[in-house]
Amino acid sequence: MGSGPSGEEELIARHFRPLASHPGALGLTDDAAFLQPPEGADLVLTKDAIVAGTHFFPDDPPDAVARKALRVNLSDLAAKGALPIGFLLALALPADHADDWLTQFAAGLAADAEAFACPLLGGDTVRTSGPATVSITAIGTVPRGTMVQRKGALPGDRIVVTGTIGDAALGLALRRERGPQGGEAGEAALIARYLTPQPRLVLAGAVRRWATAAMDVSDGLVGDLERLCRASGVGAIVQLEAVPLSPQARAMIGTDADLFANALTGGDDYEILASVPEHNLAALREQAERAGIALTEIGTVTANAEVAFVDTGGAPVRFARGAFSHF
Amino acid sequence: MGSGPSGEEELIARHFRPLASHPGALGLTDDAAFLQPPEGADLVLTKDAIVAGTHFFPDDPPDAVARKALRVNLSDLAAKGALPIGFLLALALPADHADDWLTQFAAGLAADAEAFACPLLGGDTVRTSGPATVSITAIGTVPRGTMVQRKGALPGDRIVVTGTIGDAALGLALRRERGPQGGEAGEAALIARYLTPQPRLVLAGAVRRWATAAMDVSDGLVGDLERLCRASGVGAIVQLEAVPLSPQARAMIGTDADLFANALTGGDDYEILASVPEHNLAALREQAERAGIALTEIGTVTANAEVAFVDTGGAPVRFARGAFSHF
Description:
2 copies of one chain form a homodimer. By secondary structure, the first copy, chain A, is an alpha+beta fold. The first copy, chain A, has 2 domains: 7-143, CATH 3.30.1330.10; 158-315, Phosphoribosyl-aminoimidazole Synthetase, Chain A, domain 2, CATH 3.90.650. Chain A is 35% helix and 25% strand. The first copy, chain A, contains 10 helices and 12 strands. Chain A has helices at 7-16, 62-79, 99-115, 167-178, 185-195, 204-210, 221-232, 247-255, 259-265, 281-291, and strands spanning 33-35, 41-51, 83-94, 120-128, 133-143, 158-162, 213-217, 235-239, 271-276, 295-302, 307-310, 316-317. In chain A, the strands form 2 sheets. In chain A, strands 7-9-6-10-8-11-12 form a 7-stranded mixed β-sheet, with helices on both faces. Chain A has a 4-stranded mixed β-sheet with strand order 2-5-3-4. In chain A, helix 4 (167-178) crosses helix 9. Strand 1 of chain A pairs antiparallel with strand 2 (41-51) of chain B.
């Protein structure tokens, strides 16, 4: 017949084959990939989708969109104590997407696939009449039976978070008001936190070893802590003044105290929230210090089912909306 | 705080938790699932996405949309010789979707998850301003090192296909012309072939044992055979009159000979195309007979790189378009 590869095959070969370094990906020329699971390991599987206009701005840089799509999945793996071994991608593209968009998207994805040692194993590219949609399934591994769950927090455990909370929610507000660059340097830093999450994979092993329960903070600290507590059948008391804020977030909240609630209930932090027995805290802290990642105690797990955020006087503070939800 | 589960959590609990029978799915209440891979097995991973208006009609029955989304992935596993162990789902829904749509979608998915012993392991539900989009990652297993690839066909191997070819392509044409029900019984049967593929999982083991190369026919027999041959570095000669057609397809082609080309180049067959050494043919045929699935020899693998479809006089026939591509 002599007809060559189809448009889709050429697109895949040009943009995505370079990311498919895993031998089981077969250069993306087959219908499926194969993977030999490490002996004695469990697989950890997670799948998050992002949609233009819902989870990212249609004019966000395409390489940043790709990075975010992969990183939100890697953040899930990190919080479960898992290290990535590869991912699959489904990309639905509008008919009028610019070829350059795809080139930049693939470049961003390639950079992160390499940086996080997480090669592309396979996937699908399809047309949509709607917005660009990126669905990623990430696959990680943990030693058998050791995936860290939301369930497992015990009364008396200390509650810790990595990094700082609320930057992305404040960055999103700035992005909406001021556009992609923000007004000045501090604003740009917050917008960057919204645009490009930092999966805490370097702490995956420490979380697995020292935490009783963990999850990534993707839908707001308040709502996500409630989820962790609900799964564990416990409650929590959190000192609001202990919640770690970046200097930029602190400055912004200083001008509008209502933004503190945004910071605590907004989404897209992609930090690790974990419950840690008191006697494990020093070891976890040492690992975090070695990795250069802030780790902050913000409260304690309690035996009752209530999750309370208290101010410096010990009075509980209520938030209008619990968790931010993209849905 | 006392705020309960979010809208997304309730939606997942109501519609999808019943499908998550695998213990590692944790009732869909965690950020990830875990899976203990069978000893000595390789995982087989595939991911196909379908979009309303591109791969299915927006007014297709929601349960059929769900079944198709899962089955196109199971068809890939079957052709690779793999049996499913579970799947992950990303579902992007328009804001105005009817609640009933989701109920029916979940019911169709639940029925097939059970029928094919392929439980839901996790996923994501998101909002889109565009058409409903269903992305599924299916996970299967094969004994280590035995995934059947497109590569591997050897000169002299016989080329076989399961079932009948072209029904779905003709069904799609009828669906476009006559609406979801078609005109009469024969038309309804072809439309049903388009709507609901039949993954040949019951032959997965036999394909693994007896075929040198295989893939599922999803983008048209002509184009897909070229792909298999290209991956294997071989050619093929196919007797057109040997290509198995259903009585309904034969009747329709009888009224319009041009439709034969449609049948051979159209997509959505989801039959298995395989190359099989002559001495393995009887064993494979016996397995297919036992499973009640037609298996038809249509040609032979050749040492040159050309794929030729020849008529009863031995003259090669050319098709205007090689493979059908959704992209």
